[in-house]
Design brief:
Blueprint lengths: L12 E4 L9 H6 L4 E6 L5 H9 L3 E6 L11 H12 L4 E3 L7 H4 L13 H21 L3 E4 L11 H15 L1 H9 L3 E4 L8 E4 L2 E5 L12 E2 L6 H6 L22 H14 L6 E6 L21 H17 L5 E6 L2 H6 L4 H7 L28 E6 L5 H7 L1 H7 L2 E3 L14 E7 L4 H10 L5 E6 L5 H12 L6
Parallel strand pairs: 1-2, 1-11, 2-3, 3-4, 4-5, 5-6, 6-10, 10-11, 12-13, 12-14, 14-15
Antiparallel strand pairs: 7-8, 7-9
Helix pairs in contact: 5-6, 6-9, 10-12
């Protein structure tokens, strides 16, 4: 299969779910402008949700959880559950997750023996079981994901694990693996990028901005670690495989690093590729829930605001700049982002996500709430300030309502749920001492709303006079 034959949303922005059996919040997923949603499931509980996700052009990726699976092959139970998701239209599946971590992925008796050099107990049974999964998926129209590894460095790190697993396929199951390569194989990476990214100062290539200067809507971002100019300036020649004295075991901790390694090995060992790579969990991590984070002292620290700017920049960098085979990433994970009220949430809601291959425009800001009024607004609401009764309005403004038929309400937070491709005019009726507060909660928060203010004054009938004058002149707004 060619890259353009894989079925997916075309939108690289993704999120990892809270976990098995936790209901999905559809409103959140729509507001985040997601193109991917990674589901860890206990069984088939999210099959109906996947129908909705696909209807919204959000591509689900499914891994059915099993406690400490080790290298066990798929059984009839998990095949039946996969069938439910396949029947719902899901194509992207994972089986093994981070087999390079003894705990919690392996039974207790295997701890101490889980390493990429243990051919008989680890590498061979893992690969044989994975082949059963992959061939089941191919036979049912699914895409099997290769082993998602914890992206560790040092002896026995992620590079050595990848080479051991791909090496088994090359040396022992070449024909079976080649068929899978040709018919839907992809690789799930876990790119926890640490602080291995930066934004250049304007006119100063290779010079990172300070934390407080970051702007997710401006150019100059680098997420290609370890191939970025800044890293190459202090360690020339560094690659994901290492190649320098300071990285003898490889350096996988970048957004696309392990994908580079995977596709390079596919080309070298199988004459194939490139194939899609999707980060099934990861992002700019650790999350700055309280204190700034600086896991690598060579790079700038980041606080909550910088994390938000970098997150939206990262996804649009994936769309516009990353290799064509890098399809996106699911942030780890939904509950951590929302429970900690991270600024990245409203930032993702506000910044339009570009599609893969889309060219950036002058601005990608999408203010929350409705879009600008062009000609007639899509909706017209009369919003009454606290203390004003809708029944009073219907008596006072009966002619106005009969003529223009606006929505009449005493609440205004509904504005947040009007999509950007619709517009709103709000006729706000308020006493003078509440005018500023009403402007703040509506006009300042939603600048695209046509804000039409009528003050009640000392005589309540004055509102009726204003509304009747509009009716006589056939003028909806003041």
């Amino acid at each position: 299969m060619q890259l353009n034959q894989y079925q997916w949303s075309g939108n690289p922005r993704g999120m990892h779910n809270h976990g098995a059996y936790v209901p999905l919040n559809y409103d959140r997923l729509s507001r985040l402008q997601l193109g991917w949603y990674k589901l860890v499931t206990g069984g088939e509980e999210f099959a109906n949700d996947c129908v909705w996700l696909l209807s919204q052009n959000i591509t689900p990726v499914v891994r059915i959880y099993r406690a400490a699976p080790g290298a066990n092959p798929p059984d009839d139970s998990i095949r039946q559950q996969w069938g439910k998701y396949l029947g719902a239209g899901v194509k992207w599946f994972e089986f093994f997750n981070e087999p390079n971590f003894p705990d919690p992925e392996w039974p207790q008796h295997m701890h101490g023996r889980v390493n990429p050099d243990n051919f008989d107990e680890v590498i061979k049974p893992l690969c044989e079981s994975w082949l059963m999964f992959a061939e089941f998926m191919l036979n049912h129209g699914g895409y099997p994901g290769f082993f998602s590894l914890g992206e560790t460095s040092g002896p026995g790190g992620a590079i050595q694990w990848m080479d051991a697993l791909l090496g088994y396929m090359r040396d022992h199951q070449r024909e079976r693996f080649a068929k899978i390569i040709d018919n839907g194989l992809w690789w799930g990476t876990h790119p926890y990028a640490l602080n291995h990214w930066y934004q250049e100062r304007p006119g100063q290539p290779g010079v990172p901005r300070s934390t407080g200067e970051l702007n997710g809507l401006e150019d100059g971002w680098h997420f290609e670690y370890p191939y970025d100019p800044y890293t190459q300036s202090f360690d020339p020649g560094r690659t994901v495989f290492g190649n320098t004295g300071s990285t003898p075991y490889g350096d996988p901790n970048g957004i696309t690093a392990m994908g580079v390694a995977f596709n390079q090995r596919l080309q070298e060992w199988f004459g194939a590729g490139p194939l899609p790579v999707f980060g099934t969990e990861g992002g700019i991590y650790p999350l700055p829930t309280h204190d700034p984070q600086q896991p690598d002292p060579r790079f700038q620290p980041y606080d909550r605001v910088a994390h938000a700017e970098a997150t939206v920049a990262m996804f649009n960098w994936i769309a516009t700049t990353a290799q064509p085979w890098y399809f996106g990433m699911a942030l780890w994970k939904e509950d951590e982002y929302y429970n900690n009220n991270l600024e990245a949430i409203p930032k993702m809601e506000a910044v339009r996500q570009l599609r893969k291959g889309e060219k950036p425009t002058a601005t990608v800001v999408r203010p929350k709430g409705p879009g600008p009024v062009v000609g007639e607004p899509s909706f017209h609401a009369v919003i009454l300030a606290p203390g004003l009764d809708p029944a009073w309005f219907m008596d006072t403004g009966r002619s106005y309502w009969n003529t223009f038929h606006p929505i009449v309400t005493t609440i205004w937070d509904f504005i947040l749920y009007i999509p950007y491709d619709r517009s709103l005019a709000a006729t706000v009726i308020a006493p003078p001492d509440m005018a500023d507060s009403m402007k703040k909660v509506i006009q300042s928060e939603y600048p695209n709303v046509l804000f039409d203010l009528i003050l009640t004054g000392e005589n309540p009938q004055s509102v009726g006079d204003v509304l009747n004058a509009r009716v006589w002149s056939n003028r909806r707004f003041g």
